[in-house]
Amino acid sequence: MDLAAIVLDQILTSIASLILISIGLAVIFGMMRVINLAHGEFIMLGGYTVITSVNAGINLWFASLILAPLVVGAFGFIIERTIIRFLYGRMIDTMLATWGLSLAMVGAVTMIFGNTTSGVSTPLGSMAFGRYELSNYNFALMGVAIVTIVVLWSALRFTRFGIIARATMQNAQMAGSLGVNSAHVYAITFTIGAALSGLAGGMIAPLSGVLPSMGVQYVAKAFITVISGGSAVVAGTLSASTLLGTLDTGTTFLTTPVFGEVSLLIGAVLLVRAMPQGITGRLFKGST
């Protein structure tokens, strides 16, 4: 019973982590069809925002939940206005530009912070469960993931901007003919996606630490999750994260973390092979 609780806790934590690291990319790629290869570095930037803020005496929760999304969102807005806006509809050029951006970010951060791992103490302590200890921070991570999913789904479904954004991504010319400024919608959408990436980095920082090259280990998982989920931003991310997170953690407990990562990749390949349009393209058509 104790071991089952630990396994369940780790599975839910893995799902929550996948949701957080993927949801920003789901907004940018799923809605805008922009392949942002610097997504991992956006997460890294959120992590360093938290590290720098906490070292300056700022509260960890304020840094993770407020400052990290704001800083990375502002950075994303600048990148969209100066680079991405000129490359819409040119997928290869966008990939090359964001790849170059990722290299530049890694180099800049390495010069500033050094090529070593930085971290902050995980807050909230732990609770005893039989022979094992459960980290209370895992529950906070789950809570933030749930709130993020609910807020984003509500915003896309019920707010005026959410409806305009979805209409613009589906048919920009039609939206423009109705008086919608597509450029502003793209800029805001990209900014929101970047801010969500910053939130992910801020929440992950106390768990895994932060270093300049950390983005590599997250960008692949994020793309796998988003592609497996399909075109629906929220439903796709939630369903793919649940399936892949459970597969990864379950295999890790039965074998080793290496086989867990391999099983995630194999599961995603089989899923895309069986459902080329993703989970939501087959099972949840019309979902947000």
Brief rundown of the structure:
The chain has 288 residues and is mainly alpha-helical.
Neighbour order of strands in the largest sheet: 1-2
Mean pLDDT equals: 86
Strand and helix order = HHHHEEHHHHHHHH
Strand content: under 5%
Query: What is the helix fraction of residues, given as a range?
Result: over 70%
- Strand element count: 2
Low-confidence runs: none
Q: How would you describe this protein?
A:
This protein is mostly helical. The protein has one domain (2-214). The chain is built from twelve helices and two strands. It has a two-stranded antiparallel ribbon with strand order 1-2. Helix 2 packs parallel to helix 4 (91-113), helix 3 packs antiparallel against helix 8 and helix 9 packs parallel to helix 11.
How are the SSEs placed, and which strands pair?
Elements: H1 2-32, H2 39-55, H3 60-82, H4 91-113, E1 126-129, E2 132-135, H5 136-158, H6 160-170, H7 172-177, H8 182-208, H9 215-229, H10 233-254, H11 257-274, H12 278-282
Antiparallel strand pairs: 1-2
